[in-house]
Each structure stands twice: as C-alpha cells, then as structure tokens.
Amino acid sequence: MSHSKASTDFLRNTEHAKWHDETLWMIREKRDLASQKVPEWENLRTLASSIKEHVLSNLDQLLLEFEANATKNGIQVHWAKDAQEHNQIVLDILKKQSCAQVVKSKSILTEECHLNPFLEKNGIEVIDTDLGERIVQFLHQPPSHIVLPAIHLKKRDISELFHQKLQTEKGNEDPYYLTQAARTHLREKFLKAKVAITGVNFGIAETGEFVVCTNEGNADMGVHLADVHIACMGIEKLIPRRNDLGVFLRLLARSATGQAITNYTSHFRGPEKGKQIHLILVDNGRTEQLGREKFRNSLKCIRCGACMNTCPIYRRSGGFSYQSTVPGPIGSILSPGLDLKKYSSLPFASTLCGSCTDVCPVKINIHEQLYEWRQEITKANPNHAEILSMKLASGIFKSPLAYRISGILMRKLIKNLPDSLIYNPWNVWGKGRKLPETPQESFRNWYLNHRNNEQ
Amino acid sequence: MSSRQEILEKIQQLRLDQTELPTIPEFKNPINTEEEFKASIEANKGEVISQEKLMSWISESGFQKILNFSQLINLNTTYARIDDAHELDQLQVAIIDGQFGVGENGAIWITNEQVPFRAIPFITEHLVIVLPKNEIVPTMHQAYIKTSSQSYSFGLFIAGPSKTADIEQSLVIGAHGAKSLRVVLV
Description:
The structure holds two protein chains of two kinds. Chain A is α/β, with parallel strands linked by helices. Chain A has helices spanning 3-11, 14-36, 41-57, 59-72, 83-96, 108-112, 115-121, 131-138, 155-166, 175-192, 218-225, 244-256, 286-291, 306-310, 312-317, 328-338, 355-359, 366-380, 384-398, 400-416, 419-422, 443-454, and strands spanning 75-80, 101-104, 125-128, 195-198, 202-204, 209-214, 228-234, 238-239, 264-268, 276-282. Chain A has three domains: 38-284, NagB/RpiA/CoA transferase-like (Rossmann fold); 306-380, no CATH class; 387-454, no CATH class. The termini of chain A are far apart. By secondary structure, chain B is of the alpha/beta class. Chain B contains five helices and eleven strands. The longest helix of chain B is centred in the N-terminal third of the chain and has 11 residues, at 3-13. The model of chain B has no long low-confidence stretch (mean pLDDT 95). Strand 9 of chain A pairs antiparallel with strand 8 (154-158) of chain B.
C-alpha cells in the first residue's frame, strides 16, 4: 500500500491526528531549546558527522579492532550477514540456556530482523520491557516511532488495554497508576528472566565496550538480573574512540526529546562475574547501502528520531503509514535500499522542505537523498501516464498558439465539466490535489485590455 | 566462507577512500559547574540534598531495608550479606558513592567499583548518590578524558530517577528502576 493511502486511515480521526501533530512539534521545540543551550552545538554536529564519515570509510578495520578488544574483555562476538542469521544466533544462545522466556529492551535492529515472531514461532516468549514497546506488543502492533513507540495511542486506549491485560481498574486513565501497574507486571518478568536482549547505541572500537541509553532503566534491569546478555548491533553503530562518546551523547538525547542526557547511560565492557555477554554484529543490507555513494551517509544515523518529530508529513500521517521498521524521513531513505519496490512511495512522502536535514545531529542530507531516491524510483518504475502528460504539456508550452487555444479550452472545460471527468484516473496529478478556480480571461487578454485603457 | 569474512570482504571490495578522523577540541565553558550541576539534577527530576536532610528523611520514612556502600557517609546497613542481586527486590534505599558529576546534564559516573552487584542502582526503590563537591566537570568531554585510563567492566552515568513518558507524553517518575534519586554533595 502506498504511503498516501495508508495515511488516509490515520487521518480519519481528525482530533487524534491533530494531537499527534502538535505533540511531536512540542518535542521538536524542546529539542530546539536544549540545543540552543549548547554554544558549540553546530560544531558538535559537524564533528559527529565527520567522525561517522571516518567510520564508514574505514569500517572493516574498525570492526576488527572492536572485535579484538571486545573478545579480550570477555565478550563473545558473533557476525550475522542478514536478519535470518541474526535470529538463528539468538535462538541458539537461548536454546543453550534452556530459556523459554526472554526480556528485551528497545532495539530497532531486532524489529528490523523480525526477531519476536521468529522466536515465538520457536516456542520462546519475548517480553518487551520498554513501557511503550510493551503497550504496542500487547496490541500486536509494531512501534510507530523509534523513540516514542506508542505515540499513536491515547491514554484512553492504554487504560482499556491494561484493564484487559493487567487487570487495572476500568476507566482509570492516570498515567502514574498505569505505569505502576506495568512496573509491577514487568518486575516479575525481570526477576525470572535468565536471558536479556538489548540493542546497542554505540560500540567503541578502541576499548571494545558498548553503550546502551535508556530513561526507564529497563535495559539494565533486564541484563543485570539475567545470566546472559545478548546485545544486537548494526555494524554502522561503531565509533572509533571512547572520547567520541562525549560528542554523540551530547547530541543524542537533546535531539531526541530535548533532555540533556538519558537518565541511564550504561557502558558494558565485560560480563559480570559468572555471567556472559554475547554481541551480534549485523549487516542485513548495510554493506549494500555503504556501496551506494549517494545514500551512503544515511548510515551515519544515530536513531534520535528528530527528523520524525519535525517532519510535516510524519506528524500528519503517523508512523504506521510508512509501513517500514524505521518510519519518517530517515526511514524513507533507508528502506528503499532494502526493498525498492515495497518502499517506492516513501521518498515521495515529503515536501522536501529540508527540516529533517536541519535538525539531524549527524548532518545527513536527508531531503536531498529523498530527491535522489525519487530519481532512482522513477527510473525503475516509470509512470507512463505521468510521462505522457508531461510530454503533452511540454508540446503545448513550446507553441504560443497551442498554449492560447488550450487556455481558452481549459477555462471553459474546468468550469463546466463534472469533477468525475476532470479527476479521472488518467489525471495522476489530480489525486489529493484540487485545481484552482479558473479566471474569467487569460493574463494576455487582461494585459491587452488594461494597456489600452491607460493610453 | 564465514559471515564475518563475507561482511569484511564486501566492505573491502568497495575500496573507499579513508577520510580523516577529526580531533575533538576541549570546549572549555566558563560556567559555575556546581550550580549548573544542581540545576541539571533538578531538571532530570532528581534532588540535591544535605547530609542532615538525608538522615532525617531516612529516619522519618522508617525504611527497613537499606544498603549503604558509601565510604563518605556513615549509616548502618540492614542486609548482612547478599549472594545474589535477586535478593534485593525489596531493597528500599541504596546509598552509593559517585566518582564525579557532569555540570551540563547532571550525569554521575559510577563503575562496578562502587557496587558489588550491577543491579543495585536500578533494583532499589530509592537511590542516594554521595558526591564530593569538588568532583564536578563541566561537560561530557571532560568526563571522558577523566575516565580514559579506567579499567572498569561496567560503567554508568546516572542522571536521574527511572522515568517514562510513554503514556500520552505525560512524565511519570518511577518506571522500572529507582523511583527517586537524591544526590548528597559533601
């Protein structure tokens, strides 16, 4: 389904769509305030962008350095070329631990790999422990935003859901009350879990450690109580030096939610005594994207979600309308690389206003890449109706006589023909657009008349 | 061919020109770090309190289960011995020392040196961090320089209590981890 079709569903509830739009804009404004408090903000963005540039240009060496140092620290490193292999590695570790129930904190990579359905098919229960993720998991939905997974829901919906799933009082919509119910429910799961899965925000080649950021503390609750920690990391999450963390951590939370830092920033260098850490390095299309010169730097993304919060289309169409793991502007330049056909409408879900590029903490030229993808997609799937109409228009514009005649014709036709005929399927530009009211006469006529009057 | 080799070869075959890794400047900010630190902790929904206030809070609240790992504050610990972090599910207060704080965001650095179990700062209902006043750096850059030669197995910046806004963007303190953070500057 195309993005515009899918967003029609979201827009049906106008009141909710308005709330979604305004709430995300409020987060964008918080980001502005937070970034303005840092005098060297622009300098940090440039630094972060060039550090990631270096990472992408030297990825093989840095991966080897990271692997060697992590292994030295006692972390078991695995490599997965695609989603399937990643999922199998996770399953094998779980089987070895005879683990039937696993707790998982937020990881966009495991969403991308569809790990949950895979594990469930193999008889393992996955419990998402981030509150927003647990909510959407109860609803059998994917997250609709990478930082705010349940931003498409209202507290009324969550209250009803928790009443069914967690036996909370019917009609109690108090966010504190609902959060405490989830706390009690998940505390029990944390205490029982033998294995915990997390994502990775940054992997540091120099020291072989990796960093996980949360506000809820759910990643830490999971891994510190479990015997085995499985960390899933895309190969582009590397940074060369530990000092680089200073740059990225100053940018990440401020860009994401306007906080100066997440309340927990955990650095895992080795397992706790008697425990294990497994780290899976995942490619799954990243090396292909690395080979696409125009789109390479989309791999700099640190998943802050700022481009979503600022995007006039995302705010007004919701995360689900993108139908890809990473929605919004950044998702629209990452996803076509994974499946050009499936995601062919995403680069068109943009006004190309460039706001995404302006807020991106690693300076990805998102709107330019959206435009580039449009060229690729049009080349791959030409729209014959549009090409024909453009050729026709070009012929008309080239000849003054043809232009004049068509003008007279159109002024009459548009006024008098029924809409069903004007907005026919052949008029590809008529979808979602309305023609302006037609003037009485052409500009040429108007000009000739008025010039005569003045003389 | 192993996936490891396959991934590495795919990257090598692209023969990308290596770009230069930039040097990170010092970013010296002329700020009052202690005042900024306090403001940051409060913005993160933590509290900065005096040692006297800590003691009166503990005695007034009548907590039964307290663990004190601080070298800077004297207070008796309830538990005689812990063998496993799971036993701490009912822990009400944990007091630990912070190594240093960061002015710009209130983050406090601790490592596995400060706690016998990594779960402690998270599983406890209330967390107290004791921090020497003169150990506050302005920004994260200085924080990483300061810890560059440390050899921890687990390092952690804590900047506030556990929190979430996943229900309609309403801020709730006390998601899965500690429901409050009190910082005592000594």
